[in-house]
User: Which sequence fits this backbone?
């Protein structure tokens, strides 16, 4: 990692997002990266649905977890990494829409534990509709073999 | 639905699992259906990983949510359906292994609210390793347009 | 209940708060009641602590649950009631301070399920410090014996 | 701490339980301490109720959190301590009964993060009734000022 790259959390987050094969599998794109805030967008795709034709709760969780986790990345040293310890997701409205926006924001920074909150929205013609929320607990990892980036 | 089908929760669960496109997308198979217990298995696939090469937490959540939700299906009338209200997932060990087993079990049945607990295991040569747990709250849905099966 | 009382959610919430003996036991006061928002305050008391001398997580949960639950009361018919189905609490900083403020706010209203989010703050001389958050799922109860008010 | 006391987790847990003033305030007793399992019992007391006359969810959380936290204590060095990072509680049946039993058990030990699961039961004449469950994430604390024991 070059000297000029140190602290460039945006580049690091984009690089790590690109390495999350699961995000490509579900068709998600990283659309906003700020200090403490990350957004991920996802077009509706029937291959992501459950039996009622709406977005599967696990897909919603995947996008929210990545948004929350990368929001945590924006706070840490370039040598550190983030692992999700746990999260809770509330599904508030059926995941129907043309596309979906998932925002993760840091609620509580910390040197070891970071708490992030996420919101998911369905977007069609009208105003965005809140479909889900997440609260996630993330751990900052340093020097653990196999867990870098 | 024919008379002989009434109460055949196994067939209903298999039919609904087959309609969950997200389960096909991640390569999951329904491997056990009992009254109050459902198991789903998943081979490791690099397309399901996050940046450290382990199973993405959202994929773990997808399989656990389906296992818990279908465990709830095993308790309800054929005309009713199940929606997940919320769940919490703890990621306890990295999702590394040849394949994964996800079991959902009913902790508290109910006419409106059903609580299920799930466990996820990584399986390679040795003993299965606990990688994740879920507690999910499911709602029994009756007569809501667009939500059947 | 008199005709003029219909819809007076503030009076109903105050009456129900007064009937929560647990709130009196911990010394909590209802300090704000708006449509969708309720605040509860609590002076520090050594009798509410855990072994490190900070507020016990269960006491924090009690105040947040009441704040979230009564925020839900502000949305429902006078004949209905609210039961907490589940909640998640994150403890973000030690519960140290002269007094504590707990705010519950409605995130998603609903005829059966209401989702509320709560935040707890420690207050001393300086600015309020975020110590905890809650996401709670509440059920609207109608016509169940023994569950009124 | 004397040499003979090293590793005597039962004595340490009893001592720390006795220092949790909140447990005395709610009338809880530590009734079982094993490696990885702790039980706390509580007689019904009207002063612990919410508006429907049942045990307040926060009181249930307090007892479950202490049971889970002390179960984590049974795994750690005498010099270390435990802080709850977060928990989720499901309230499955109204907290009615003569007394209540709360059991915390370790699901996943760890050097930094310990995951515990708890169950709460109401006990009267008949069989114990499951009223609540908890999954809690605990952090092992070492060398942090003001957090010992």
Assistant:
């Amino acid at each position: 990692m070059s000297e000029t790259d140190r602290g460039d959390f945006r580049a690091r987050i984009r690089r790590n997002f690109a390495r999350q094969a699961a995000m490509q599998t579900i068709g998600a794109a990283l659309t906003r990266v700020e200090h403490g805030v990350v957004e991920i967008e996802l077009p509706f795709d029937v291959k992501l649905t459950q039996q009622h034709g709406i977005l599967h709760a696990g897909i919603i969780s995947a996008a929210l977890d990545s948004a929350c986790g990368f929001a945590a990345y924006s706070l840490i040293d370039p040598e550190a990494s983030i692992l999700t310890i746990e999260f809770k997701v509330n599904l508030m409205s059926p995941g129907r829409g043309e596309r979906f926006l998932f925002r993760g924001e840091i609620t509580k920074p910390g040197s070891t534990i970071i708490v992030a909150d996420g919101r998911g929205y369905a977007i069609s013609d009208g105003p965005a509709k809140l479909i889900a929320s997440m609260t996630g607990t993330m751990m900052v990892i340093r020097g653990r073999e196999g867990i870098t980036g």
Remarks:
- Chain C has one domain: 3-141.
